[in-house]
Each structure stands twice: as structure tokens, then as C-alpha cells.
Amino acid sequence: MSDSPVNRLLGGGERDPGCEACFEVLDAFAEAVLRGEDADRLFPEVASHLAGCAACREDTEGLLAALRADLRPQEPR
């Protein structure tokens, strides 16, 4: 995701599929991010949407934070 102010305001130039379409593949996008893959290249329309939609970007960051927390080793009790 580009954090350029211009890209955040105007989008990255890619076709923006909208919130609903983005949400349909958000799990696959998040899994690609967690695997260290170039999720922006694999999901250019999602990356474009996230660049211009603060609400979806916030949801994505929350999902990634939750998944990362879930992946951390649990301490024995």
C-alpha cells in the first residue's frame, strides 16, 4: 500500500472494486501479507481500494493485528 498523500486522496490509479468486493477477498489478502508475500501485487484492486478508503484500511489493520496476535506462541499456564 502506498502511503503517499496523493494516493490516499485520489487512489492509486487502479480500478477500485468498492468496499463489498474488497471485503470478499480480505481474508486472502491478509493471509498473503502474513506469509510475507507482495499482497499489493497479488491483489492490486484491493490495494487500490485500501489506499483510498480509510474505513477498510482500518478494518484491514485490525484484522492483521488480530491474526498476528493469534499466531504468537501461547505462554504455558
How would you describe this structure to a colleague?
This protein is mostly helical and about 80 residues long. It has one domain (about 5-70). The chain is about 70% helix and about 0% strand. It has 6 helices and no strands. The chain has helices at about 5-10, 20-25, 25-35, 40, 45-50, 55-70. Helix 5 packs across helix 6. The chain starts with a helix and ends in a 6-residue tail after the last helix.
Summed up, the domain count is: 1
- Determine Rg (CA atoms, Å): 14 Å
Structural shape:
elongated
**SSE pattern, N- to C-terminal:** HHHHHH
Structural class: mainly alpha
Q: How many β strands by DSSP?
A: 0
Biggest sheet overview? none
| Low-confidence runs of at least 5 consecutive residues | none
Helix fraction, binned, reads 55-70%
Compute the average pLDDT. Answer: 85
Distance between the termini: 39 Å
Give the helix tally: 6
**Percent of sequence in beta strands:** under 5%
